[in-house]
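Late entry, written up from scratch paper. The run itself happened at the end of the previous shift, but nothing got recorded in the book at the time, so transcribing now.
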Amino acid sequence: MLEIYNLTKSFGEKRAVDDVSFTVNAGELCAFIGHNGAGKTTTIKCIAGILGFDQGTIRVNGLSVEDFPLEVKRTIAYIPDNPDLYDFMTGMRFLNFIADVFGVEESVRKERIDKYASALELTEEELGTPISAYSHGMKQKLAVISAFLHDPKFILLDEPFVGLDPKASHTLKDLMRDFCRAGGAILFSTHILEVAEKLCDKVAIIKEGRLVRFGSMDEVKGDSSLEDIFLDLEERND
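Output as recorded:
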């Protein structure tokens, strides 16, 4: 579903992503782990087609993000770490706008909005409220609903649990698992090892722009050479 080969991205003289390669298959939920500034967000933005890159190849569902940008965007959903929504719109108007962009039929969009809004406990009244009045958690919920609206094949999430209450976080984890069980694939960034350990099939660990380990959590946790990285992440989460 996702193939990354030798991805390199620099900002001036700083190499933010340095020769990164890994794959995420259909049905897999993969965590992208690293502390702030490690290169997670830059990599995700390159996959989403928001940032260009200097070297390498990225393919989603067999299509190059450089050669087929619109086709790739039709098959993916991306939720940034701080959703930048249209504050002048109501929540419902925003969801209908997203559905219009992706050509989702009226009956289908209503069913999906009802399903995900109910699961995340975003009420009809709240959906009728301007987004400018939303808390960060409500904006995150709205972004999650918008991501599932067009039935994507692959979902990118950048620190998706930040700002969500425990119940909403649990619901999102269930939605992510169900999505992958149905044949989709997810890559999500986090700096919290515990979340990845409980949720994921695969783990990619990045440090200072370089991929230092990729595999199952058991494989990664069993690698004694990564003890310093795990300790560093645990200390940052204390």
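Residues 116 and 175 are 9 Å apart (CA to CA).
(Scratch paper discarded after transcription.)
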